[in-house]
Specification:
Elements lengths: L13 H12 L6 H18 L6 E11 L5 H11 L4 E8 L4 E11 H11 L5 E9 L10
Antiparallel strand pairs: 1-3, 1-4, 2-3
Length: 144
């Protein structure tokens, strides 16, 4: 490889490392490092799509979390009340005995939605936070 590379160390739970090894063993990547670089590129791209949000936006925030982790359910509820002007609906689903998925419909200023994302991501127990934004034509009311 002709590019300069920096070395870093990553600590992973055994099941995630096993999943990574499975990807490498499937033959698409020559090494854990190559697969990890590709995963990090995808993560950075997705993260950047969820930053510097501006203007009136509508969409859904999907949060996957382990409700057995310290107070995550209470913190999620607290954030929903704190962002009541932005959150218009919440759908809660139990995927496994300990794993929950919340689909949070949002409508409001991009900066407020970004602030919500920034508060959700670091919560202990939260495994994934994803935003999908839809374009809404403010000039047309399709339900009239």
């Amino acid at each position: 490889m002709s590019e300069d590379l920096d070395r870093m160390s990553v600590t992973l739970p055994p099941d995630l490392l096993g999943d990574l090894d499975g990807v490498v063993d499937a033959g698409d990547y020559d090494s854990r490092s190559e697969a990890t670089r590709d995963a990090l590129r995808a993560f950075v791209t997705e993260f950047n799509r969820q930053t510097d949000l501006a203007g009136a936006l509508s969409g859904t925030v999907v949060v996957l979390y382990d409700h057995d982790d310290a107070d995550v359910a209470a913190e999620m509820t607290s954030l929903q009340h704190e962002f009541a002007d932005t959150i218009i609906a919440v759908h809660h689903v139990h995927l496994r005995s300990h794993l929950c998925l919340e689909s949070i419909a949002v409508d409001g200023d991009g900066e407020d939605i970004e602030a919500l994302l920034a508060r959700l991501r670091p919560l202990k127990g939260v495994q994934q936070v994803k935003l999908t934004v839809v374009e809404v034509d403010s000039e047309t009311d399709h339900h009239s």
